[in-house]
Design a protein that fits this description.
Blueprint: H1 27-41, H2 46-58, H3 62-67, H4 75-89, H5 94-98, E1 100-103, E2 106-109, H6 122-132, E3 139-143, H7 149-157, E4 162-167, H8 170-182, E5 189-193, E6 206-209, H9 224-227, H10 243-257, E7 261-265, H11 271-281, E8 286-291, E9 297-303
Parallel strand pairs: 3-4, 3-6, 4-5, 6-7
Antiparallel strand pairs: 1-2, 7-9, 8-9
Helix pairs in contact: 1-2, 1-4, 2-4, 6-7, 10-11
Glutamine (GLN) binds near residues 118, 212, 214, 226 and 265.
């Protein structure tokens, strides 16, 4: 994308001077000034965050940005950059500032109506893909779909799959619908407002879910990016973190009896408890916890 002609920042309010004071600097130096401010505030990956936000302001892809590193930043761009840098310094996640986050190599729109997709959740997409490979017309349910990361990534990677996407939150379902449309899978992702699986009937191949699993008592220990900006509805799993997953397991029992497999993301210290809940809900089922690439418990698997 060329740098000029895409800078829709003319209507930004003007300020006499910017706290960062990057006006007149090259893009590279402006990025470094922001990175330094991030570092001092304790924000990880400061240089990358500074680059992502500067490219957002300039509407530049990565290659074009690197080609222009030695160009000066204009006054308007400096002001716009200053505004997004201040938001980031107030610990707003950069995905909410830019409105985008990559998941499973796809660009997702994100808003504070849903959790920002995490890379570890790609494991659930992989498991789902492996389970439905070779099936004629697989039907899966993504419970608590949020922005649609699992549902849309699965549909986009398997042309014959249909996904039922449930959430209690209408705004989250609207976001899933938008992402499904942007990736041309809206005819195969059905958004349903539901409390977990309630009201659903049918024979499913997979029930996949990234429900809240943070213990309420751990809430205050979360990073401010999460605690102050992401929806608590998508994170707080009650006293032991597993109240929703436990309830889902009970609702899922008749579907698992019919052959569905459950893949549920859990916290790395919740493996034993999650297994115990699954055994209580389905004493006849095969239950396991699979680790992520770093060896941490990450996914509860329940099958007949
Ligand atoms: N992994 C998320 C975190 O970093 C929690 C996601 C969830 O509760 N489903 O807090």
């Amino acid at each position: 994308m060329p740098r000029t002609g895409h800078r829709n920042i003319r209507n930004q309010p003007r300020k006499a001077s910017t706290p960062l004071g990057v006006h007149g600097m090259t893009l590279a130096n402006a990025q470094h000034a922001a990175a330094k401010a991030f570092e001092v505030t304790g924000i990880d990956d400061a240089l990358l965050e500074a680059e992502i936000l500067l490219r957002h302001v300039l509407h530049l892809d990565r290659a074009s940005y690197f080609a222009e590193l030695n160009q000066p930043i204009s006054e308007e761009e400096a002001e716009a950059y200053d505004q997004v840098v201040s938001r980031r310094l107030a610990r707003e996640p950069s995905a909410y500032i830019t409105g985008h986050r990559e998941f499973f190599a796809l660009d997702f729109r994100v808003t504070p109506d849903a959790l920002i997709p995490r890379p570890e959740t790609e494991l659930l997409v992989e498991a789902t893909r492996a389970r439905i490979a070779g099936e004629d017309a697989p039907l899966i349910v993504d419970v608590g779909v949020g922005c649609g990361a699992i549902a849309v990534a699965t549909a986009a990677n398997q042309p014959n799959v249909t996904v039922i996407a449930t959430d209690v939150s209408f705004p989250a379902l609207a976001l899933t619908r938008l992402n499904a449309r942007l990736h041309n899978v809206d005819s195969r992702v059905a958004c349903v407002q539901a409390d977990l699986l309630s009201g659903l009937h049918g024979r499913f191949d997979v029930i996949v879910t990234n429900l809240p699993y943070v213990r309420t008592s751990d809430w205050e220990t979360l990073e401010p990016e999460i605690r102050e900006h992401e929806p608590r509805l998508a994170l707080d799993g009650g006293p032991d973190g597993l109240s929703l997953i436990k309830r889902l397991l009970h609702q899922a029992a008749p579907f698992v009896e019919e052959g569905a497999e459950v893949y549920a993301e859990i916290g790395d210290d919740q493996g034993e408890e999650a297994i115990a809940h699954a055994r209580t809900a389905m004493p006849w089922a095969n239950v396991a916890v699979l680790p992520d690439l770093a060896g941490r418990d990450r996914m509860l698997v329940v099958k007949r």
